[in-house]
Amino acid sequence: MANSLDLTSGETLDIAQLVDLMAELLQLPIAPDYRPGVIANLQRTADIAQLVMEFPLPEEIEIAPVFDP
User: Fold this and answer.
1) Whether 23 contacts 65, CB under 8 Å
2) pLDDT of residue 42
3) Is 6 in a helix, a strand, or coil?
4) Where are the domains of the chain?
5) Reported pTM
6) Span 28-53, pLDDT tens digits
7) Residues contacting 46, CB < 8 A, separation 6+
8) Contacts of residue 5, Cβ cutoff 8 Å, sequence gap at least 6
9) How far apart are CA 45 and CA 67, in angstroms?
10) Beta bridge partners of 13
């Protein structure tokens, strides 16, 4: 598992840098002991999201405006 996030433009984003920037932007201090766990969890979330984004959808699929179970 690399500490980077693949963007649709082909660029990658450093997850550790993203955590640091977002913590600063949100004025949310992250204790040094917790930082590695925050980075690992964000990377895990990005990996799962990548699987969802790569799932092939047929061209004829339509967006459901309302979910009715």
Assistant:
1) no
2) 94
3) strand
4) 4-53
5) 0.68
6) 999 999 999 999 999 999 899 989 88
7) 5, 15
8) 12, 13, 15, 18, 43, 46
9) 24
10) 5
Closest C-alpha among 51, 22, 52, 46 to residue 35: 22
d(Cα 22, Cα 29) in Å, to the nearest integer? Answer: 10
> Please, how many CA atoms are within 13 Å of residue 11, restricted to the half-sphere of its CB?
4
Question: Cα(62)–Cα(59) distance, rounded to whole angstroms?
Answer: 9
Q: What is the 3-state secondary structure (H, E, C) of 13-43?
A: EEHHHHHHHHHHHCCCCCCCCCHHHHHHHHH
In whole angstroms, what is the distance from residue 8 CA to residue 22 CA?
Answer: 20
How high is the pLDDT of residue 65?
83
Contact 12, 18 (CB under 8 A): no
